[in-house]
Design goal:
flat, 10-stranded mixed β-sheet, alpha+beta, Severin, about 425 residues, 5-stranded mixed β-sheet
């Protein structure tokens, strides 16, 4: 009934075969230590596994977000590409339809030879063959030369601008050139020609060229006789206007009205850098009144002293006193510009053919000519606006008479490639 002292000292006992098994203290403590070490090992392993899983769980959202963002961007780019391609396709379809509906283009470029059209009241009118080589200085023309090379028909399209052609006329010509280019599957090389500064290629089409005074802006081919004007100069200072002797030494404190050129068609306001605002306002009103009293067409404009080159035609008119000054080739440095997808101009360093990238349009500005290079993957906006931007760049330069050539990627001419080899 009572346990022995030895049995009472035992903390742990188990029945085995009906008998009490006593465990000595040293062995008991050893088992406890082993058990504790096992628990620590299991705990450490669990922590590692849980920690690893936790780390994995932390990484999964980050990786998923990156994947989602990447896929979203890729999808957005694909959607944008599809949208751009769709827009390009729609534009090409519309342009093709417009070209097909233009009766003047029927038979254009179908056989080797020269074809010429004249812009009359915003319409394209074929020029009789016996009048080829005769151009009215008040009109704009489109000239298509079709020739054969390596068994295929090749094309050069020129639009010629007379010195008295209106902006509406040459804008119509420029638009119709794009239309004709579309009609011929975008294969022609385009050229803009300026009266008295025609390219040698353009001149080679004719045995001789004849410039006739007048135009067809009113629908009439009647020739008009130009009235000769001496160069006149008025100075506006302190609210008064007086005529002064023609001179190129204009004072920065004054504003001037300049009239001259063939037929007196140049009518400009020159603002000195230090001229007061009141004098500029008075001059602007005088300029408008002068233009209204003239029956002949006049070209008006405003020149700012700091922005006007000494080689500007009006300034040369003052300096030389010539009625029809001709600006010689301006020795301007060649440069290259990128016409971006956002319709901005980015000046590039150097003149390297390697700069040409298929996704953009590039302008190559040389002393002799102005080139537009159109990449195959350029956007519709870039292609349709390139000529307008190039025309503005050329017009404000010291060599506004230069010819503008348009070449397409993969169809570069030898003349274009020489620009880079001679750089």
């Amino acid at each position: 009934m009572f346990q022995s002292d030895a049995a009472s000292e035992v903390d742990d006992e188990q029945p085995i075969n009906g008998e009490i098994q006593y465990v000595s203290p040293p062995r008991k403590y050893w088992l406890i230590i082993v058990a504790m070490l096992a628990c620590i090992a299991v705990g450490w392993t669990t922590k590692e596994v849980v920690g690893s899983q936790h780390a994995k769980m932390e990484r999964v959202p980050t990786d998923a977000m990156a994947l989602f963002t990447s896929n979203f961007k890729r999808q957005k780019e694909l959607d944008w590409g599809k949208e751009t391609a769709s827009k390009d396709k729609a534009f090409e379809t519309a342009s093709k339809d417009s070209a097909d509906n233009e009766l003047a283009w029927k038979g254009a470029g179908q056989k080797v030879g020269l074809q010429i059209w004249r812009i009359i009241k915003f319409k394209v009118v074929a020029v009789p063959k016996d009048e080829y080589g005769e151009f009215y200085d008040g009109d704009s023309y489109i000239v298509l030369n079709t020739y054969e090379k390596d068994g295929d028909l090749q094309f050069d399209i020129h639009y010629w601008i007379g010195k008295d052609s209106t902006q509406d006329e040459y804008s119509t010509a420029a638009y119709k050139v794009v239309e004709l280019d579309t009609k011929l599957d975008n294969r022609p090389v385009q050229h803009k020609e300026v009266m008295n500064h025609e390219s040698s290629l353009f001149k080679s089409y004719f045995d001789s060229m004849k410039i006739v005074k007048g135009g067809a802006d009113s629908g009439s081919s009647e020739k008009v006789v130009e009235k000769s004007y001496e160069t006149d100069l008025w100075v506006i200072a302190e609210g008064t206007m007086r005529k002064v002797r023609t001179t190129s030494s204009l004072k920065s404190e004054n504003v001037y009205i300049i009239q001259g050129g063939p037929g007196g068609q140049l009518l400009y306001q020159w603002n000195g850098a230090k001229a007061p605002r009141k004098s500029k306002m008075v001059a602007a009103k005088v300029l408008q009144q002068f233009a209204k009293t003239r029956k002949e067409k006049v070209t008006t404009g405003v020149l700012e002293e700091k922005e006007t080159s000494a080689n500007h035609p009006v300034m040369m008119l003052l300096r030389s006193g010539e009625k029809n000054p001709k600006s010689g080739p301006a020795k301007l440095p060649s440069k290259m510009l990128r016409f971006t997808g956002s319709l901005d101009l980015e000046v590039l360093s150097g003149l390297e053919e390697a700069n040409l990238k298929t996704e953009d349009v590039f302008f190559v500005d040389t002393p002799e000519a102005y080139w537009i290079w159109v990449g195959k993957n350029a956007s519709v906006d870039q292609r349709t606006n390139s000529m307008t931007y190039a025309h503005k760049e050329v017009s404000k330069s010291e060599a506004a008479w230069r010819i503008i050539h348009v070449v397409k990627e993969g169809e570069e001419t030898d003349e274009f490639r020489k620009v880079f080899t001679n750089a």
